[in-house]
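hey so i finally got around to running the thing on that chain from the lab meeting. sorry it took forever, my laptop kept dying and i had to restart like 3 times. anyway pasting the input first so we r on the same page abt which one it is
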Amino acid sequence: MLARSLVAVLLSIPATVALLGLCLALLPVASDLTLPALLLVFPVWVGLACASYLLPTARVAAALFCALTVLCCGLIALLKSLGLSGV
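ok and heres what got predicted. didnt touch it at all, straight out
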């Protein structure tokens, strides 16, 4: 249970930031949705932390959060290199 709690608290934060960063990268530059998207950090973080308890093991949750973080950061970098990012 300690491992699952550590995964829920420590690995869901970077996944949350990467996921919302990807959403912000897809928005246009002068969007009125930037501040509401940033205010979603806490609810999304709590949702991901709770979702880690629904997965079968802590190892699966850790792998999922790491993969989500790497995938979102990679997509942000790809969008920025192609010039499609609004940020």
